[in-house]
C-alpha cells in the first residue's frame, strides 16, 4: 500500500537507537511479567510492541495529571490477552509502579490477566472477549464526533485507537461494528491490526484466509498495509491515517509472533505460554540487556519516554486555559457543558407524558412516547434500534432527533441495521467515552445476540439502557422462533444487571427514569407488543424504584394467597384475584427482582410476609429464578417453546386466563 513518504517532525525526531532500546525493554518486561506469573500471552504482545510503542511514545494525547480528561485519545486493547504490553507502556507513562508489573495476574493487583476498566488508570475498556474492543472503539469514535459537533473542536478533538489481532477479526462482531464505522465515516477511528498469523491452536492459515484488506475497503475504510515491526513505516502510516478525515483507517501491520525472541520467534506456541528461563535470558542478551536482571528499565528509557509526558502536560494546560476562557466568556458554552457533564439529577427533571386519559396502551408504545419526550428535554440521549424502529417504537424518537450520519453529527438516532451484538458493543463504547446516555432496542428474543456485550456492560458498571420489546408468547403469529421463553431468566442471571418488566405505561415511564439515575449498572427493559390497561397507581415512582409493591389486597393482613407477577401478567393476576372469592388475596407487582432484592429486609417482609406461605409467581416465560419468592407455593409460567397462532388463541391454549389460573390455584391450595 502506497504511503506518504514525506518528512515530518516526528519522523525527523525518531532516535533509532533509543527507540530500539525502548522496545527491547518493553518486550523484556512482557517476558518477565508472564514468566513471574507463570501465566499469560507473551507472543502477541511482543509482535504488537512496535506499533503500540510508536503510538504511545509519539502520538497518544493524555493528561498525566487527570486520567479521565475528556479530550484524551482513547486506546482500546481489543486483543486483551496482550495486557502485559499495555501495562509496560502505562509503567513508562508513570501510571503503574514496577511493583504492580511484578504482580501481573495476581489477586488485588492493578495488572489483571485482561485489562479491566475502572481498576487501572489508562485502561479505557475491559477487553478479552475478542472482537468486542473493536465495537467499543467504534462507540467511542461516535461519541467524539457527536460531542465535538455540540461543544466545538476546540474542546473535543481526539482520536480513538484500537489494537486488534487475528482473533478479533475472526469474531464477526468486529466486522459488524467495522461496517457501521465505515458507513458513518468515522475518520478519527484508527485500528492497528497486528497480523502475526498465529493463534493458540496453530497458524491462522489452518482456519482462515479472509482478505481483510478487501473486506475493509468494502466497508469504506482506508486500508494501509505495512511492516508492523518497522518504526518508520508505522510512523508514516499513522500520519496518513490521521490525515484521512472521512474514513476510519485500519493499519494492517504484518508482524512476527514473539518478535525478537532468540530461538522461538514466529512460533505460535508463544501465543499462550510463558517463554522458558533460558529463552528469556538469550533474548535479553540478544537485545543488549542484562540477562540476569528481571523487570529492568534503564534511566535512559524512562527519561526518553517522559519527553512525551512533558509535552502532554503543556498541551493539557493550554486546553485547560482555553476551556476556562470559554466558561467565563461564552454565553452558551457553560450551559451546554453542564447539560452533558454536571447534571447529576436529570431523571428528577424529566417530565413524563401523561397517560391518565389513556385506557390501554402497549408498554412498547408507551416507551416510544416517553423516549421522544425525554429526548426533547435532554441532549444526553443517543442510540437507536437494530432495524426495528416501527416495531420497537423508536421511530418518533428518530424523526425528532434525526439520524447520526457522516454529514449530520448532531443527529442522535443511530441506524444500527440488523446487528444486535455490534450494537451492544458500540453502546458500551459510547458509555465508556462519557457524556451521553446510550440505548439500543430490539426484540427480547434477540437479546441472546447481544448478551456477550451486555455482560461487559455489567462487568464495567456502564449505564447502558437496553430496550427489548415483544416480550412473551403474545408476539403471536411470528411463532416460537420469535417468542421469548428463557431470555428473561438469562438476563436476570447476569450480575450487576437490572431487568425491569413494567406492567403498564406508568411503570414504564418510571423504569426509564430510573435508568437515568442508575449510574453503575445497565438496565434492560422488557416491553409488551400487546396493549395493557393503564393502572391508577399512586406514588408509582417510589414503588417501581423498590422493585416490587403491593398493588391489590390489604397490606395489614396476612394473605391466604399471594400472587406475584411481572409485566402483562400483573393484569392476569388482578383478574384472577377477583375470582378467588372469600379468600384473602394479595397481588404484588414485581417489575424488577434486582431492585427488590436490594431493599431492606423490613420492606421485603412487608411486601412478601414470611408467614404467607402459599405464593404463586406468574410470568409468561420460564419459571426459572422465581423459586426464591414462592415459599411453599409454585410458579406458573411457560417452560416450553411457543406456537404460531394469534395471541388470543395461545392465551387459552397455554392457560393464561383468569378462569384457568384461579381454578389451578384453588385446586392446589393446601388444606
Question: What is the tally of helical segments?
Answer: 27
The general outline is elongated
Overall number of structural domains: 3
**Quick one: biggest sheet?**
5 strands, parallel
> Which whole number gives the mean pLDDT?
95
In spatial order, strands of the major sheet run 1-2-3-7-6
Key phrases:
alpha/beta; elongated; 27 helices; 671 residues; single chain; Rossmann fold; 5-stranded parallel sheet; 3 domains
Give me the secondary-structure topology.
Layout: H1 9-13, H2 16-37, H3 42-59, E1 74-77, H4 83-92, H5 98-102, H6 132-151, E2 160-165, H7 166-170, H8 172-184, E3 189-195, E4 198-199, E5 202-203, H9 212-218, E6 222-227, H10 231-243, E7 249-254, H11 277-287, H12 299-329, H13 333-341, H14 346-349, E8 360-362, H15 363-377, E9 381-385, H16 389-392, H17 395-401, H18 420-433, E10 437-443, H19 447-459, E11 465-469, H20 487-492, E12 498-500, H21 505-517, E13 523-526, E14 531-533, H22 540-545, E15 549-552, E16 561-565, H23 569-579, E17 585-589, H24 593-597, H25 601-607, E18 615-618, E19 634-636, H26 647-653, H27 658-668
Parallel strand pairs: 1-2, 2-3, 3-7, 6-7, 9-10, 10-11, 11-13, 12-13, 16-17, 16-18, 18-19
Antiparallel strand pairs: 4-5, 8-14, 15-17
Amino acid at each position: 500500500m502506497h504511503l506518504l513518504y514525506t518528512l515530518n517532525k516526528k519522523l525527523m525526531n525518531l532516535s533509532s537507537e533509543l527507540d530500539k532500546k525502548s522496545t527491547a525493554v518493553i518486550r523484556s518486561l512482557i517476558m518477565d511479567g508472564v514468566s513471574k506469573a507463570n501465566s499469560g500471552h507473551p507472543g502477541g504482545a511482543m509482535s504488537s510492541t512496535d506499533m503500540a510503542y510508536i503510538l504511545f511514545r509519539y502520538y497518544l494525547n493524555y493528561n498525566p495529571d487527570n486520567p479521565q480528561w475528556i479530550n484524551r485519545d482513547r486506546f482500546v486493547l481489543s486483543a486483551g490477552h496482550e495486557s502485559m504490553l499495555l501495562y509496560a507502556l502505562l509503567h513508562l507513562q508513570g501510571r503503574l509502579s514496577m511493583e504492580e508489573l511484578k504482580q501481573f495476574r495476581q489477586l488485588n493487583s492493578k495488572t489483571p490477566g485482561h485489562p479491566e476498566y475502572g481498576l487501572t488508570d489508562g485502561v479505557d475498556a475491559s477487553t478479552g472477549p475478542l472482537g468486542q474492543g473493536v465495537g467499543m472503539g467504534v462507540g467511542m469514535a461516535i461519541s467524539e464526533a457527536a460531542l465535538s459537533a455540540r461543544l466545538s473542536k476546540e474542546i473535543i478533538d481526539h482520536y480513538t485507537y484500537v489494537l486488534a489481532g487475528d482473533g478479533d477479526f475472526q469474531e464477526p462482531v468486529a466486522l459488524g461494528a467495522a461496517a457501521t464505522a465505515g458507513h458513518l465515516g468515522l475518520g478519527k477511528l484508527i485500528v492497528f491490526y497486528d497480523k502475526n498469523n498465529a493463534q493458540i491452536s496453530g497458524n491462522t492459515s489452518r482456519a482462515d484466509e479472509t482478505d481483510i484488506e478487501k473486506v475493509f475497503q468494502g466497508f469504506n475504510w482506508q486500508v494501509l498495509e505495512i511492516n508492523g515491526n518497522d518504526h518508520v513505516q508505522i510512523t508514516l502510516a499513522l500520519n496518513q491515517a490521521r490525515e484521512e478525515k472521512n474514513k476510519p483507517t485500519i493499519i494492517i501491520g504484518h508482524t512476527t509472533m514473539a518478535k525478537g525472541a532468540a530461538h522461538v520467534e514466529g512460533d505460535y506456541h508463544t501465543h499462550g505460554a510463558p517463554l522458558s528461563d533460558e529463552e528469556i535470558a538469550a533474548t535479553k542478551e540478544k537485545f543488549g540487556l542484562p540477562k540476569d536482571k528481571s523487570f529492568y528499565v534503564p534511566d535512559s528509557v524512562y527519561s526518553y519516554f517522559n519527553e512525551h509526558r512533558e509535552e502532554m502536560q503543556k498541551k493539557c494546560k493550554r486546553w485547560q486555559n482555553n476551556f476556562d476562557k470559554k466558561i467565563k466568556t461564552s454565553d452558551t458554552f457553560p450551559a451546554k457543558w453542564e447539560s452533558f457533564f454536571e447534571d447529576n439529577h436529570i431523571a428528577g427533571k424529566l417530565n413524563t407524558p401523561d397517560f391518565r386519559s389513556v385506557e390501554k396502551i402497549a408498554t412498547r408504545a408507551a416507551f416510544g412516547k416517553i423516549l421522544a419526550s425525554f429526548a426533547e428535554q435532554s441532549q444526553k440521549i443517543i442510540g437507536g434500534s437494530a432495524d426495528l424502529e416501527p416495531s420497537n417504537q423508536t421511530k418518533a424518537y428518530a424523526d425528532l432527533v434525526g439520524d447520526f450520519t457522516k454529514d449530520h453529527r448532531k443527529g442522535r438516532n443511530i441506524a444500527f441495521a440488523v446487528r444486535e451484538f455490534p450494537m451492544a458493543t458500540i453502546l458500551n463504547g459510547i458509555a465508556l467515552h462519557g457524556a451521553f446516555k446510550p440505548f439500543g432496542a430490539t426484540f427480547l428474543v434477540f437479546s441472546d445476540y447481544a448478551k456477550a456485550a451486555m455482560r461487559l456492560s455489567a462487568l464495567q458498571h456502564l449505564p447502558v439502557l437496553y430496550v427489548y420489546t415483544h416480550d412473551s408468547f403474545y408476539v403471536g403469529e411470528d411463532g416460537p422462533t420469535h417468542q421469548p421463553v428463557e431470555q428473561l431468566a438469562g438476563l436476570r442471571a447476569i450480575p450487576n444487571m437490572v431487568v425491569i418488566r413494567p406492567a403498564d405505561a406508568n411503570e414504564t415511564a418510571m423504569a426509564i427514569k430510573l435508568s437515568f439515575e442508575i449510574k453503575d449498572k445497565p438496565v434492560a427493559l422488557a416491553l409488551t407488543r400487546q396493549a395493557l390497561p393503564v393502572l391508577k397507581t399512586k406514588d408509582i415512582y417510589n414503588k417501581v424504584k423498590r422493585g416490587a409493591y403491593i398493588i391489590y389486597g390489604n397490606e395489614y393482613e396476612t394473605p391466604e394467597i399471594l400472587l406475584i407477577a411481572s409485566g402483562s401478567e400483573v393484569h392476569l393476576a388482578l383478574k384472577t384475584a377477583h375470582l378467588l372469592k372469600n379468600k384473602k388475596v394479595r397481588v404484588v407487582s414485581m417489575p424488577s427482582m434486582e431492585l427488590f432484592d436490594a431493599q431492606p429486609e423490613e420492606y421485603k417482609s412487608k411486601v412478601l410476609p414470611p408467614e404467607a406461605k402459599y405464593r404463586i409467581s406468574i410470568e409468561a416465560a420460564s419459571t426459572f429464578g422465581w423459586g426464591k419468592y414462592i415459599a411453599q407455593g409454585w410458579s406458573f409460567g411457560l417452560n416450553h417453546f411457543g406456537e404460531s397462532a394469534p395471541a388470543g388463541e395461545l392465551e387459552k391454549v397455554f392457560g393464561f386466563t383468569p378462569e384457568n389460573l384461579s381454578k389451578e390455584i384453588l385446586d392446589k391450595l393446601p388444606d
